[in-house]
Amino acid sequence: MYYYEIGYSSYEDSHCETLTHETEFNKDELEDMIAEGFKSLFPSACAKDLTFLYCFYINDEVNIYDWLVANKGFKKLKYTAISSIFGWGDLKTPTDWKREIGESSLYKKILQQIDSIESEDCDGWMQKGIS
After folding, report:
1. Any idea where the domains of the chain sit in the sequence?
2. How far apart are the C-alpha atoms of 105 and 95, rounded to whole Å?
3. Cβ 21 vs Cβ 65: under 8 Å
4. Per-residue pLDDT tens for 94-131?
5. Are 57 and 31 contacting, i.e. CB atoms less than 8 angstroms apart?
6. 22: which strand partners?
7. Partners of 19 in the β-ladder
8. Which residues are registered as beta bridge partners of 15?
9. Architecture of domain 2-76
10. Which of 2, 12, 62, 116 is the 20 to 30 Å CA partner of 52?
11. Do residues 37 and 68 make contact, with C-beta atoms less than 8 angstroms apart?
12. How far is residue 109's CA from residue 113's CA, in Å, rounded to a whole number?
């Protein structure tokens, strides 16, 4: 089984999905299939006005990932668990980014662990490394 991460990213947004396949493809072969999928999904010259965000993930019914599954034999990877935090909130301020992080259990667990650490002089801790 071979794993392929396919998606787009920018400073503001990103979306990647991991697809699997029984066949090993190199990057060039994979990109040829993705380009073929774009042409199939957007046969009109109007597609030149689209953004890559729109091309990769239009909606749940039309997207490059499902096209690769339906037309090239890929399968979607099913994760056992996913853990992710949105944003880069300040760990010293529990209410920082509160609206965006919502009820993130990971964020709360990290804050609980950090709150249990004894106070110390933190000057230069990044240079020393985290133990």
Report:
1. 2-76, 84-117
2. 14
3. no
4. 666 654 555 667 777 777 777 776 666 555 555 555 54
5. no
6. none
7. 4, 76
8. 8
9. 2-Layer Sandwich (3.30)
10. 2
11. yes
12. 6
* Two structure tokens written together for 119: 């106070």
Strands (E), the chain: 2-9, 14-21, 75-76
Q: Report the share of the chain in percent with pLDDT over 90.
A: 28
Tokens of 30: 């994979």
Are 34 and 17 in contact by the 8 Å Cβ rule? The answer is no
Query: Which phi and psi (to 5°) does residue 120 adopt?
Result: -155, 170
Torsion, Cα of 84, 89, 92, 94 (10° steps):
-80
Name which of 31-40, 86-95, 117-126 the model is least confident about.
117-126
Determine the average pLDDT of the residues in 41-50: 64
Instruction: State the Cα–Cα distance between residues 35 and 115, nearest whole angstrom.
Output: 49
Tokens describing residue 97: 């980014």
Q: Mean pLDDT lowest for which of 18-32, 39-53, 101-115?
A: 39-53
